[in-house]
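<purpose> Linking amino acid order to shape
<body> The protein record starts here
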Amino acid sequence: MSDPAIVAHFKSLGCKPIGCDKHGLKWSPLDAARLIKPAINSGLYFETRVKNMTQDAENAIAITEEVESRLSKTIDSFIKTEAAFSERSKRISGSVRDSAAKMADGLAKMQKVANFDALERQVELLERAAKAMQVLSELDASGKLTKITQALR
């Protein structure tokens, strides 16, 4: 994890590592303070940090702009899809209304042609005739129909 340029710079200034851990070389706090203090006082440390931070900020801005562009394209796609669905649903709704109106007109014409009042009367008469035929059949089966017809003659 130690930066080779920093290690070379520290060694060129006479500093020696005092150990090593999982993060890399360890330096004496006194040597580090002796080398870092002038960098901080001269502003070099902050200039370096600002350059790094500026680059990080520019990277973050570029990533944000890319995400914004992708999100904008996705939203535009959703809006187009919604508009298409809306248009289709309007056409289908209109078609359903037209079909319902045609069906209502057709039923009205059928009622006029069929004359349901007369048809209902005919059905009632047919039901009464069917009951009468059933009663006559029962009378015939019991032999009473023959007696009634003889009595009427």
Summary: The longest helix spans residues 44-114. The mean pLDDT is 86. Residues 115 and 124 are 15 Å apart (CA to CA). The first strand starts at residue 17 and ends at 21.
